[in-house]
Amino acid sequence: MPRAPAPVTPPVVLTIAGSDSGGGAGIQADLKTIEAGGAFGTSAITSVTAQNTTGVRGSHLLPVDDIEAQIRAVREDFDVAAVKTGMLATSDVIDLVAAETPLPNLVVDPVMVATSGDRLLEPEAEAAYERLLADAALVTPNADEAEVLTGRDIDDPSDTEAAGRDIVEMGADAALVKGGHVPGDEVVDVLVTDDSVTTFRHERVDTEATHGSGCTLSSAIATRLAHGDDLRDAVAAGIDLLARAVRYNLDVGEGPGAVHHAVETRNEAARHETSEAVERVVSALVDRDVSTLVPEVGMTVAGATPYAETPTEVAAVEGRITRTLDGVRPNRGVRFGAGGPVAQFLLAAREHDPALRYAVNCRLTDGVEDALRDLAGSVSGYDPSERPDDVTREATTAWGVDAAFESSGETPVAIVDHGEVGVAGSVVLLAADAATLLGHVETVLAVVE
User: Fold this and answer.
1) Where are the domains of the chain?
2) What is the C-alpha to C-alpha distance for residues 407 and 401, in angstroms, rounded to an integer?
3) CATH second-level architecture of 270-448?
C-alpha cells in the first residue's frame, strides 16, 4: 500500500531581484536564505548579471513585461506572505514594482552598489525609489545607499539615525540603516520607526567576505515577517544571522568569498551529532576511569556546534563528572547550556581558532603538567595573578585564553591555568573533534598513571 502524503505549508516569500551567476548574492542568496529560514522562496528575476566574488563583468536587464509576468504568475498562484526587493536597476522596474502594491510585508533593499564597488542602479532611477519606499514595511539601506536616498553624509551612528528618520518621513513604515560601511570596532545598525529607535550592535568581523550580506539580511527579515514575527524581532533575528554568516563565511572563489546563507540551519542541524559526541567521550572516560584527572570541582566535557557563538550552543554534562568510590560518574545527562566555565573557555578559544569544537578540564598537578609534554602540539598557559587591573575576575578566562594563544603563536592543544589564591589551577585540553580530544586524555592519563 502506498504511503499517505504528509504535505507541509510553509509561508511563501517572493524576491524581486537580479541574478548573481556567482551564487553569493542576488536571487541566489535570497532563495538560499528563505529556504534556510523555513519558508518557500519564489522569484521574479529583474536582470541577469555576469559576476563572481571579484566583481561584475556584465549585466542584462530583462524586458519590463517579462518581469511583470513573473510577478503576476507568482501572485496569482501563491499566497505570498512577504516580498523583498533587491536589484531593480531602472526607474521603469521600480515603478513596475510600486504599481504592484499593496505587497505584503514589503522589505526594500535599495541595491545601488555591489559589495565589490560596481554600480548596479542607473543614476536617474534613484529618485524613483521614493515612490516604492512609501509602500515599504521596511527599507534596509547601507550607509552609502542611505546617503544617496537622503542626501546626508553618514559618518557615525547619529547620522545613521537621522537618515533613518528621513526615510520614514518619505513614507516607509521603518528603516534599518546598516552600519557595516561606517568605521568603528562595532557594527551599529539603527532601526527607526515613527515612534521608536532601536540600536543593534555587533563586534566587527575582520573580513572582506561580505558578498551577499545585504541580500541575506533583507531576505532573512522578510522570511521572519512571513512567519508572523513582529518587525523588531524579525530585524534582530536577521542581524544575528548575518553576524554569524559573515564570521563563518564561505571561502569560495578567487575573491573575498561570500556570506554563509545557511549558517544557522547547518548549526542547528549539528546539535544532535554534537551532543552524541560529548556522550561518547563521557562514556569512554567513565569506562577508562579517569579519576586521577578529575578536579575537585568536577570534570566537564564540552562540545560546540560548528558555528557556536553562545553557551547555549555548547553541549556538556549537567552537573559535571565527579569521582566516586568505584570510579567516575556523570551527575546527570548531556544538555546544551550546561558547560559553565569550560564552555566559556571553549568559546574564547574559538575566537582564535573556530575549528576547535571540544574541550575537557583536568586537575593540575606536577605529574599532569609533565604529561602535557607528550601531547602532539603546543602547550600554553597563563597566570591569573598577572591579570591587568582593567580586567575583571569574571573576564579572567577570556583574558587568559587570549594570553595563551598570543604566547603560543599557534593553536595550543592544552592551556594551563596556574590558579591564584583560593582558586586551584587546572588544565583544559582542546581539539577539533571528539576522537582527538579522547586521544589527548589517553596520552596524559598514560603518563600520570
Assistant:
1) 12-262, 270-448
2) 10
3) 3-Layer(aba) Sandwich (3.40)
Q: Which three cell numbers stand for residue 265?
A: 540551519
Strands 426-431 vs 414-417: parallel, antiparallel or unpaired: antiparallel
pTM of the model: 0.91
> Which H or E run includes 161?
helix 157-169
Grid cell of 148 as nine digits: 544617496
Torsion-angle region of 395 (φ positive above 0: left; ψ -120 to 50: alpha; else: beta): alpha
What's the CA gap between 416 and 341, in Å, rounded? 14
Distance CA 119, CA 112 (A): 6
Write the DSSP assignment of 300-337 as a string of letters. -EEEE-TT--SGGGEEEETT-EEEETTEEEESS-EEET
Specify the DSSP element, H or E, that contains 429. strand 426-431
Per-residue model confidence (pLDDT) at position 121:
66
Question: In 197-350, which ranges are continuous DSSP H helix?
Answer: 213-226, 231-247, 263-269, 271-288, 340-350
Residue range 12-262 forms a domain whose CATH class is alpha beta
Which residue matches cell numbers 559526541?
277
Cα–Cα distance measured from residue 240 to residue 341, given in angstroms and rounded to the nearest whole number: 24
Asked whether the bond before 5 is cis by omega within 30 degrees of 0, the reply is: no
User: Sign of dihedral through CA atoms 10, 214, 253, 118?
Assistant: positive
Mean pLDDT for the stretch of residues 250-268: 94
Q: Which amino acid, 181?
A: H
Per-residue pLDDT tens over the stretch 25-82: 999 999 999 999 999 999 999 999 999 988 889 989 999 999 999 999 999 999 999 9
